[in-house]
Amino acid sequence: MSKVVNINTASKEELTTIKDIGETRAKIIIAARTDKGKLTLEDLKLIEGLPKTMWDPLVAAGRIIFENTKEVDDSADQKKQIETLKTELVNQKQDAEQEIKKIQNNFNTWLLIATQEKTTIQHELKHQIKDLQDALEGEMEEKNEYAKLIEEIKQKYAMESSALQEFNQQEKENC
Question: Where along the sequence do coiled-coil regions lie (predicted)?
Answer without folding.
Answer: 75-170
